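Extended Data, panel c. Modelled sequence:
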Amino acid sequence: MMKLTKKRVVLFLLFIFPLICFLILSTGTNNFTKLPVVTSNVLDVSTLDSSKTFNGNISVVCFLGNDMNSNKGGFFNLNEKIYKKFIEYNQFQIIAVYPKGKESEVEILKKEIGAFTDMVKWKFIAGSEEQITALHAGFNSDDALSSLYTSNVFLIDKNGDLRGRVSDQDSVDGKLFGYNMNSVSVLNAKLKDDVLVLYYEYYAAFKDKNKNKADRKEVGL
C-alpha cells in the first residue's frame, strides 16, 4: 500500500486537487447558482453620458458625492480589492458618478488612485443632481444618497439588470442591492465572489451555446 508521505500530500494539494476542481466546474455547466437579478432594466448611464453604457459590460457603479476627500477611503478599497482583481477581465468597468462642478476633486482622486494603477477601466461620469438621483433611484434599493454619495456600490450585468443577493444573512429582509465599499470584508467575501459568479454564468452560457451549435451541426440542422 502506498504511504501517504508529506511530499505526496503537497503534490496533491498543489497539482491534483486544483485539477479536480477545474474538471468539476468545467463539466457541471449548469450545476451552480446564478446571481439573482434584484432590479430589472435599471436606468442606463447613457442618460448622463451618451458615450457610456451598461449594456454589454459588467459594471460596478459608485457615487462619488460632493465631498470626495472625506470618502476616498472606500474608493481606494474598491480599487484595491475589486478593480485590480478584474482589470484583465473582458467588458469589466467601474462607473464613478460625480456631480457636475466637481471636476477638480475628481482629477485629484484620479491622480491618487492612479499612482500605482492603470485607470483605463475607471469611467468617471458627471451628472446634474437630478440625473444622479434618478440613476440611483432606478436601482430600487433601500439605500439613500447623502449629498449625492453612498458607501454602497452596485453590480450591473450586461443586460442592464442590477444583480445582488436575495438570501443575504446580513440584510434585514435577505435582499442585498449594494455592497459597502468601506468594508474590506464585504468587498472580499461578497462583491468579489458575486462578480466571479456572474462571469462564470456568462462563460457557462457561452459554452452551452457553442455545444448546441456543435450538436445541431452533427445532426445536420
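The chain is about 45% helix and 15% strand. This feature is highlighted in the accompanying rendering.
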